[in-house]
Fold:
Amino acid sequence: MEYLQITFETLFGFLALFILTKVLGKTQITQITAFDFISALVLGELVGNALYDDEIGIPKIAFAILLWGVLIYTTEVITEKFKGTRSLLEGRPSLIIRKGQIDRVALKKSNLDINQLQHLLRSKDVFSMQEVEFAVLETDGTISVLKSFPQQTSTKADLDIQEQPVPLPMAIISDGEVLWDNLEEANLNEEWLQKQLQAQHFKSPKDVLYAEFKEGSSDLFCMGF
Structure:
């Protein structure tokens, strides 16, 4: 009976947190601020402790998750409607490199040392401080870099190349299974697919790990197992 209760509470906690994440939106996953980090810890602790406490059942878990969800949602509403609260609740980006010079005061306020700064820069494919014109430490702990002019990559506009449409590749086969919705959306049919597979010496879709189609192309790109 005890194991059955733990199973039910685990499933309920998982579903409740999953629904809460969906309601609050993807920013809770992709942009973790200090408040979001605390939220994740508290929610995990609430569910984790409840699983092994005989006095806490599903109603109490539901109430705790609902209450914390309301607090998070309320905070999101406040930061949307009152801009002055954003710096307190979400934090504020810090300009740590300005015109090629490290702002030591901003670096110290952000509790960063040079080694940590270099690590963040390398995550942006920057291996020399001399390449950086501006660097901003974001509220989620990542860094945004604007390289100096000589280090910037030329764009098609810089090279005055004639504009061409950019097609979006569409997966047709994944792990041996045909994605029929995508095939139909690309205005293709099973007969065309079979011809493409035969031309590339595949007997059936089950032999294909991944296949994608790009609009404007007549061929299917395939990768076998």
Observations:
- Residues 134 and 146 are 5 Å apart (CA to CA).
- The two ends are 45 Å apart (CA to CA).
